[in-house]
Amino acid sequence: MLLITHYTRMQTRAAAEMTLKQQALAEIKAAWQRIEKYNLEFGKVCCEWRDKFKARGFRKEGDGVSPILDELGIPKSSAYYWMNRYEISIGVKSARPEKQKPEAPSLWTPADEKRANRSEPIACMDGYKILAKQMLEAGFCELLKKKAADQSHLWAAKDWAKLRLDLGDALED
User: How far apart are CA 50 and CA 82, in angstroms?
Assistant: First the structure.
């Protein structure tokens, strides 16, 4: 009995002589090494030490749970994952609702169109080519006014673009 009392006194004295960081290091390491169901025990220990460090004002770099995790080689992402899972299990945090899969989009028909600026598509590609040439001419004129580039280069670019529209893939670069 005397031996047990002496041993208990030595444990108490050893625990009292350990710094807060050493205690945290020992407890977190032990929790990480134990294989618990869902590892919620590890999350609990990390949360407790996080709270103890906050309560004592350890907020400067190098203090808190993060450097202890680094020292033990425990991935922070794993620790924070289990801390979050533990907090959800005790009701401190609420679980995120599961993402719902979007319904399959329905096929669009002109009758379903609600935007006033929509019109019927042009019947053939020639109509789009005419519209593209008009856009090209308007842009060309605007760039000439702004003197955005050398005039001869603008003319060459306009002629090249019109040829591409007229000849399509038959013209090679």
Answer: 13
